[in-house]
Design goal:
about 725 residues, mainly beta, Immunoglobulin-like, 2 domains, 22-stranded antiparallel β-barrel, 7 helices, 42 strands
Length: about 725
């Protein structure tokens, strides 16, 4: 939060001690801060245009506090008799988030003072990643410490995000706090959301069911839209070396001081590519179009409304390339057509009694038409969501009470045995209180699930600030997950070979994390320890006649690990280094039911123990930016891979250059400079088709290899 440097100067030190006067120099990013308040005891002063203020300090032990609008307060402890003639204080700016400080935490408390840790990806980083993958937020999310984008069906390119080692179906993806992309982790949503209209991304890692119900067992990713501040038009055109094209436009207007609106539209295309010339698709082909208008209202007196609607159409292709064959000599076509529409609204009213009444509501419907060899599967899934909450303050307490309802339904044309309709009313409460240097948040939720019964999920979080520059957070909570037929395995093989599930129970989890943050001016240091246990996890188990069935396994999945982050910001330089260690295990009998002797537990497949990243960005607002990045993905266990049991570690390098000419920006980006590809080690295609119908092994490394893209971004 701050960097306080004691500078001992030789000029008149004894006079300063005799008078008890200290000259304080206040700066931020190397520039003086005018109007800052400098105080100690009853004495106070205001800094002038040069950032200077003189203040009388007693000879006894003293605390000097420096405060300025828009900056994190700074404090300095002086021992008795220690009186330098001059002090230099460097303030750190409070991140400038639009409207709500943090939407995801259900609290008006500033990000720095939240007991629950919420990580924020700011607009600057979003703009950088928008030049790398203009049609998707997958890279933006996947390069965040503790998050990993894992392909679920390599031939079609689908993927979901794992948070701290937990499987992707446990991750809840939101847009402005609304489940517009469905009630549970989806294997395509991340790949279909362009980042051009995002203002920030908020991430809660770990069990979050007490906040968002039975779809957030692993965590929450909230995509917060960019609020228009004036008329704006942006156009981004991009072309890749793998014959992919992206075109996205963001148009915003502010008709008056209360209303504003924006529209995001895009067209995206990728031709199928066979990178190793084995006749099989390594890079899925797709054609996608999407449009999302948003309207914003702010009365200036506590009433705000955000309304949105979206429409998406996509066609994906995979499987064997034209005029090529699978190892059995036959043609194996894969395709997936998706149609999705949604609408949502978030409204808040400040009442005369200073209560805040909030309403959130959304509806989404997605239909898919999938071809898997000779099998065709068609189905539609719809999600209805509504929530009403009341927020207020009573003394030192900030509390929220509310009620919610969610409907999740699926109707399959060819496989009606997988039809379901879940209804889930819920009640929740949250209380946050600050006592001295401690701040505690307690929350609880009860979901009455029509299929899985009563699901109670508590959570407790604590923030301790021994000094303003340090923040220690401890959080623990329980979670629940309502199973559906859609898990990672069925994303790849479909449902035609899966028998009707019977007797499934809700998955339950408990997670704990300890987080320590230290800020020293432009330097941020963070360390996290985390652990979780998922009980009764759902797996795909073998059944007679080469069929499969979804079952709860009794042995839990246990995950623990650590994360470390170092970020330095100074002027035009932003450098970030991260490291994550993740250890996730499950019962060996559940993975290999026919195994004999051996270890009781094995590592969860596709979960690297080690992950490290370094990113360096040099930016000049007028001229452009240059960025370099390096990633290390460690060895990872593999499941049912005929070529190897453990995937090797890999180093991935990338570079970005952007040149600005007033309103026109030209950019070029290179990913995977070393051209690391999984198919350089082993084939993607199995020598013999798996009993569940799959022809491919799991994707444990890049399938596309080196990719260079470039384009133009115009701001009107």
């Amino acid at each position: 939060m701050l960097l306080v440097c004691l500078c001992w100067l030789s000029a008149h030190p004894h006079a300063a001690h005799a008078q008890g006067t200290v000259l304080v120099q206040v700066e931020a990013d190397g520039r003086p801060v005018e109007g800052a308040s400098v105080s100690t005891g009853a004495a106070a002063a205001i800094t002038d245009r040069s950032g200077h203020a003189s203040i009388a300090v007693p000879e006894t032990a003293a605390t000097i506090t420096v405060e300025a609008a828009g900056f994190v307060p700074a404090t300095l402890q002086l021992a008795a008799g220690a009186r330098p003639a001059r002090l230099e204080v460097e303030l750190e700016a409070i991140p400038e988030f639009e409207e709500d400080v943090v939407v995801t935490a259900r609290s008006p408390t500033r990000l720095q003072d939240l007991p629950l840790r919420v990580e924020v990806i700011d607009r600057e980083e979003i703009e950088e990643k928008a030049l790398m993958t203009p049609g998707s937020v997958a890279m933006l999310i996947g390069e965040t410490t503790g998050l990993r984008v894992q392909p679920t069906a390599p031939s079609l390119g689908s993927a979901n995000v794992r948070i701290q080692g937990l499987r992707g179906r446990y991750s809840q993806l939101l847009a402005d706090g609304l489940p517009l992309y469905g009630g549970q982790g989806d294997s395509l949503s991340l790949l279909q959301v362009p980042p051009l209209d995002l203002g920030r991304v908020e991430i809660i890692k770990g069990v979050a069911s007490a906040l968002y119900g039975a779809s957030a067992l692993g965590g929450v990713i909230n995509l917060v839209s960019r609020r228009p501040t004036g008329p704006a038009r942006e156009l981004l055109l991009n072309q890749t070396s793998l014959d992919g094209s992206d075109a996205a436009v963001w148009w915003a207007e502010t008709p008056n001081d209360r209303w504003s609106w924006s529209v995001l539209g895009g067209a995206f295309r990728q031709h199928r590519r066979d990178r190793d010339d084995d006749g099989w698709t390594d890079v899925a082909g797709y054609r996608r179009g999407s449009v999302r208008p948003r309207a914003y209202y702010d009365s200036g007196a506590g009433t705000t409304i955000v309304a949105t609607a979206g429409l998406l159409v996509e066609e994906r292709e995979g499987g064997t390339i034209e005029n090529r064959r699978a190892p059995d000599g036959g043609v194996f076509a894969e395709s997936l057509g998706t149609r999705r529409g949604d609408a949502g609204i978030v409204a808040r009213w400040l009442t005369a009694s200073t209560h805040v009444l909030a309403v959130r509501a959304s509806y989404g419907r997605q239909s898919q038409d999938r071809q898997f060899g000779t099998t065709r599967e068609r189905g539609a899934r719809d999600t209805l969501f509504g929530e009403v909450s009341l927020q207020s303050q009573t003394g030192a307490h900030t509390w929220v009470v509310g009620a919610a309802y969610q409907h999740d339904g699926h109707a399959a044309k060819e496989l009606p045995r997988f039809d379901y309709s879940f209804h889930v009313p819920a009640l929740f409460v949250q209380d946050e209180v600050g006592v001295g240097r401690l701040r505690v948040a307690l929350s609880g939720r009860i979901d009455a699930h029509s299929e899985y019964g009563m699901l109670a999920t508590p959570r407790a979080s604590l923030l301790w600030k021994p000094v303003p520059a340090w923040a220690v957070r401890l959080s623990t909570g329980g979670g629940a997950f309502a199973p559906t037929p859609f898990i990672e395995d069925t994303d790849e093989i479909g449902l035609s070979r899966v028998d009707t599930p019977a007797g499934l129970r809700a998955e339950r989890a408990w997670g704990t994390s300890l987080d320590v943050t230290r800020r020293i001016g432009g330097l941020e240091l963070n360390g996290t320890l985390f652990g979780s246990t998922v009980r009764r996890p759902v797996r795909l188990a073998s059944a007679p006649d080469d069929h499969w069935i979804l079952v709860n396994v009794e042995a839990p999945i246990q995950t623990w690990g650590a994360e470390a982050l170092t970020r330095y910001r100074r002027g035009a330089v932003v450098a970030t280094a991260t490291y994550a260690f993740t250890r996730s295990t499950e019962s060996a009998r559940d993975v290999l039911p026919l195994a004999g002797i051996g270890a009781d537990r094995v590592e969860v497949a596709l979960t690297p123990r080690h992950y490290a990243a370094f990113d360096l960005m040099l930016e000049n607002e007028r001229r452009g930016r240059i960025g370099l990045e390096a990633y290390y993905v460690g060895r990872q266990s593999l499941d049912e891979n005929p070529y190897r049991d453990v995937a090797p570690g890999q180093v991935i390098l990338g570079a970005l250059v952007e040149r600005r000419f007033n309103r026109i920006r030209l950019f070029a980006n290179a990913e995977n400079l070393g051209d690391r590809r999984q198919t350089r080690y082993d084939p993607l295609v199995r020598p013999v088709r798996h009993p569940d119908g799959r022809w491919t092994v799991d994707a444990w490394g890049p399938l596309d290899g080196r990719v260079v893209n470039g384009g133009i971004r115009m701001v009107f």
